[in-house]
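Figure 2 data, in text form.
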Amino acid sequence: MSGSPMTVDFRYSKDGGHNWSNWRQCSMGETGDFVKKIEMRRFGQGRQWVFDIRVTGPGKADLMGASTMVVAER
């Protein structure tokens, strides 16, 4: 399992979960890479955000936490 890539799949809804975006996929790095920062940008505007996150790969992964930083760009 060493060196196997893990991925995080991510989709979102801007209307409380009625409609969903396509899945986005980002690498979580290699097995044993414990300090990986994942950034996603360009989500547009919405009022009732809902996020759906799944982790895929050959190993076990636990989501220990998540945070967001919302920035209004003009």
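Caption note: Residues 5-56 form one domain.
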